[in-house]
Every structure is written in C-alpha cells, then in structure tokens.
Amino acid sequence: MDEGECETRRNALLQHVQDLESQFGLLREQLYRERMSQNIVNQYEAEEQAALQNFESEKNLACDYYYSELMETIRRLEEDRHNSEISWGEGGEWGSRSRSRSRRKAVTVSGPYIVYMLKPQDILEDWTIIRKALKKDALTFGL
C-alpha cells in the first residue's frame, strides 16, 4: 500500500467515523426526547391519579355528611311523630285528655285571678305541642 492509498483509506475511515458520530448524536437526541416525553406522560398520569383520588375522597366526605344530616333529620322527624302519636289519639281527639263533652258551669270569680279549667297534664301537653311547633318554625325559617 502506498501513501496515496493510505491517505484515501484514512479519509474514508474518518468520514465513516464522522457519520457514526452524527448518527450517535441523532440517536442520543431522539432518546432524550423520548425520555422527556415519557416523563411528561408519567407526571400527567400521576397528577390524574392524585386528582381522581382527591375527588373520590371529597365525594365520600360529602356523601357521609349528607347521609348523617339525613339520618339526623329522619331521627328528629320520627321523634316528633312518636311524640305526636302519644298526644294525638285516634279519631282526631287528644288521647290523654278525658274531658267530658258537656261544658262545666262557669265559675264566678272576683279579683284578678286566672282560672285554669284544665288539668296540669293537659296544660303540659299543650305546652309541649306549642314548643314543638315553635321549634319546627325556627328550623323551617332558620334554613
């Protein structure tokens, strides 16, 4: 091999090395872009999963809150119904009141007296009904 052939061979090999370095640079850049793209996809999926978990957690908290509020309302309504069933008898008459249908004679009273014609038990029942009605109105208008 003479000097010209060696120089030609050397130039060809240098050209081949440069081509390989160029291909290596392109492949390295392509790999970098692919990894960056994969990182973005992974980050997006992680944020999506976190948002979904947060949503589910908030949804469960809201459901639990509204369920407990509903159960409390049902409990209060059942309690009120139970209390009204105790006070209200069949046929639309007060169950525990045993007043006769006939009127009593009016009693003449002198002075500033308050005369109660009702028994204490009847007064307590009336007072309970008034309190419940006021509480119901307060809840209705308080919301």
From TrEMBL:
Its transmembrane ranges are: none
Q: Which domain of life is it from?
A: Eukaryota
Keywords on record: Nucleus, Repressor, Transcription, Transcription regulation
Can you list the GO cellular component terms from the UniProt entry?
nucleoplasm
The biological process GO terms on file are: regulation of gene expression
InterPro entries recorded:
Sds3
Where does this polypeptide localize? Nucleus
Where does it mainly reside?
nucleus
Look up keyword Repressor and say if it applies: yes
Q: Cite the PANTHER family for this sequence.
A: BREAST CANCER METASTASIS-SUPPRESSOR 1
Supply the name of the protein: Breast cancer metastasis-suppressor 1-like protein
Give the species: Rhamnusium bicolor
